[in-house]
Write a structure and sequence with these properties.
Strand order of the largest sheet: 3-2-1-4-9-6-10
CATH architecture of the largest domain: Alpha-Beta Complex
CATH superfamily of the largest domain: Spore Coat Polysaccharide Biosynthesis Protein SpsA, Chain A
Order of helices and strands: EHEHEHEEHEEEHEHHEEHHHHHH
Structural class: alpha/beta
Largest sheet: 7 strands, mixed
Number of domains: 2
Radius of gyration: 22 Å
Length: 317
């Protein structure tokens, strides 16, 4: 049985951290080292963690951000395998056992990403936090440049940390995506554990729910990766990076298409969606929208302005 180090960065999570800690300490896989890193909390977060006594290791530091806190935990982790769990998320008892079973069956230089369920202030969502599912090993290099198909609910050998290093603390967002891209482009591959065994919490306007800032962070992260691995990309990967630089990500293209559609430029919106679907096939939703938009755009474009059907569909993008 491998020893698993679970890294839990936290900041002012006194209202939630007890549940997160409890979910780690009640795993069916028993050999668990829990490292909680308090990133300068000003509430009772540290007191609650300390109340669990020797069942966890509590590290405290001045506030430096989630990347720095996660890295502090990674430096102190002694396990054969490392798992990540933020202090407002919840792991079901079988989470580590399920991930380890997939890891054991996988080829060398593999880590595991796990399906999860989104949890909001209104309760559990039907949306799975790993919407892309399994991606073929031979397509993962190209796929990670299209979108982040790897969840923060990942379990990886400590050898991966030793090889690729820590999270990039210069990135305020998308740092997990950069880490997974760095691993894949260094020769590691990821396997998928599809069983729902964790809940990812999203509260209000959290960092991960700020769409505009996330898109900017995505562009900055891709630029970092492109510079770090310059000269190692295949022609297909170089073409994708050039497309991203020229037209933007699939999400940016979809948003521009939405704006064109709402302004009554239906054929232009459909064309932008087709381009996004061609260049970013990882996003099946874009492809579905492109097919639908391409079918109805000529009809809508031919209708006069103010025609009821035209106006109704224009506003129902």
């Amino acid at each position: 049985m491998p020893r698993v180090s679970v890294i839990m960065p936290t900041y002012n999570a006194g209202a939630r951290i007890g549940v997160a800690i409890g979910s780690v300490l009640t795993q069916s896989h028993r050999d668990v080292e829990l490292v909680v890193v308090d990133d300068g909390s000003t509430d009772d977060t540290a007191d609650i963690a300390r109340a669990f006594g020797s069942r966890l290791t509590l590290l405290q530091q001045a506030n430096a951000g989630p990347n720095a806190a996660r890295n502090t935990g990674l430096r102190h982790a002694t396990g054969d395998v490392i798992a990540l769990c933020d202090s407002d998320d919840v792991l079901l008892p079988n989470y580590l056992a399920d991930a380890l079973a997939v890891l054991e069956a996988a080829p060398p230089r593999t880590w595991v990403t796990c399906a999860s369920r989104l949890m909001t202030d209104d309760g559990l969502s039907d949306y799975g936090f790993s919407p892309f599912g399994e991606v073929r090993r031979d397509r993962q290099r190209l796929a990670i440049l299209q979108g982040n198909f790897v969840s923060i609910f990942s379990v990886f050998p400590s050898a991966m940390r030793d090889e690729i290093g820590l999270f990039d603390e210069s990135l305020a967002r998308a740092e997990d995506w950069e880490y997974w891209a760095r691993a894949i482009l260094s020769g590691w591959r990821v396997a998928f554990q599809p069983r729902i065994a964790s809940f990812y919490r999203q509260q209000g306007q959290s960092q991960s729910s700020d769409a505009g800032a996330m898109l900017d962070a995505e562009d900055a992260m891709i630029a970092v990766i492109a510079e770090r691995f310059a000269g190692t990309f295949t022609p297909e990967e170089e073409e994708l990076l050039a497309t991203r630089d020229r037209l933007g990500s699939a999400t940016r293209q979809r948003l521009r298409a939405r704006d064109a559609w709402r302004e009554g430029h239906f054929t232009d919106g459909a064309r932008q969606l087709r381009t996004a679907a061609r260049d970013f096939p990882l996003y099946p939703g874009v492809r579905a929208k492109a097919l639908t938009a391409s079918a109805i755009a000529p009809v809508l474009q031919a209708l006069p302005a103010g025609f009821p059907l035209r106006e109704r569909l224009k506003d129902r993008w």
